[in-house]
Amino acid sequence: MGAVLGAWLLLLAACGPPATAVVGPTPAAVVQTAPPRPAGSATPSATAPATPAPSVAAPPSPTSIQTALPPNTAAPTTPPTATAPPPTFTPPPPPPSLAGEHLLWPRPVPLASQMWTDKSYPYGSTRGGALRPHTGVEFGVGAGTPVLAVAPGTVVAAGNDAQLAYGPQTDFYGNLVIVELEGGAPTFVLYGHLSEVSVAVGQTVAAGDVLGLSGATGVADGPHLHFEVRVGANDYSATRNPLLWLVPLPQTGVVAGRVVSPSGELLHEAPITLRRVDAPAAYTATTSYALGEPNSDGIDENFAVDDVVGGFYEVIVDNGRRRFTTELWVYPGRINWVELVVGP
């Protein structure tokens, strides 16, 4: 009977799963061929009663492969699928500065105020066709904010434009100050919609001098400062994009360029979006200059956007039927040039 039982146990071991199919840890007892006896126990004699054959509900032989987990052992888990590390972006060496670049002036409002420009109505924009092409940029400061000279010069206009038009009509800028800057080509800076004027015609001013206080006079839909640059003549038709003259805010740069057709024709009011690739960033968008008063600034640009945090960007123009893209590294403290050719 013992021989029959031994043969049955060997048959169970031979029919068990191979070693590679072990699900849980194999206990040390698996190498034993019989359960250990308590210390001091006698070896069973031949006359001892025969051990009854195990029933089908008996636990498996210790020589079989264990497939059940020991008590208090957590079920093995499938290791997580390895994910590829995010790509790294190493900026190439910056290209040479753009010929004609002149980021010269501080912001015309105090450090404690809203120093960034309004992105909903930038230079050259019509705000989606709702307004005339913009010939300056806006600082959305509250009424009564000091307005500062950005460079030394001489005041050539101070007061209001109720009698003499400095724009497309009288009472357009309301209370304004115009300063002709020292040196170089004739350059004029206009500060419009003031609530109060603090200087007089003929007065010389230095950078940082207070010219007046911001307001909402003239054609204005609320308190702000209209800031305008004119080159060559003190005339509404001689404006340039102020974003190409103001020093960028810390850690930001200016993106400027051209949106053209395959034949090189400038495209007006094309929507331009900058999507940062290497890190999260705020939504940044603008449009190319509208047809009319806006002028390029000697670098043949037809759009510019400021306050762009340095990094790697995709520049996108979507004409409603096709999407045109190119890539651009933005370096802080400078103009970053890009050109997009938009087909039919």
Automatic annotation (TrEMBL):
<feature type="compositionally biased region" description="Low complexity">
    <location>
        <begin position="32"/>
        <end position="56"/>
    </location>
</feature>
<protein>
    <recommendedName>
        <fullName>M23ase beta-sheet core domain-containing protein</fullName>
    </recommendedName>
</protein>
<keyword id="KW-0732">Signal</keyword>
<feature type="compositionally biased region" description="Low complexity">
    <location>
        <begin position="63"/>
        <end position="76"/>
    </location>
</feature>
<dbReference type="InterPro" id="IPR016047">
    <property type="entry name" value="M23ase_b-sheet_dom"/>
</dbReference>
<dbReference type="InterPro" id="IPR050570">
    <property type="entry name" value="Cell_wall_metabolism_enzyme"/>
</dbReference>
<dbReference type="InterPro" id="IPR011055">
    <property type="entry name" value="Dup_hybrid_motif"/>
</dbReference>
<dbReference type="Pfam" id="PF01551">
    <property type="entry name" value="Peptidase_M23"/>
</dbReference>
<feature type="region of interest" description="Disordered">
    <location>
        <begin position="32"/>
        <end position="103"/>
    </location>
</feature>
<feature type="domain" description="M23ase beta-sheet core">
    <location>
        <begin position="133"/>
        <end position="233"/>
    </location>
</feature>
<feature type="signal peptide">
    <location>
        <begin position="1"/>
        <end position="21"/>
    </location>
</feature>
<dbReference type="GO" id="GO:0004222">
    <property type="term" value="F:metalloendopeptidase activity"/>
</dbReference>
<feature type="compositionally biased region" description="Pro residues">
    <location>
        <begin position="77"/>
        <end position="97"/>
    </location>
</feature>
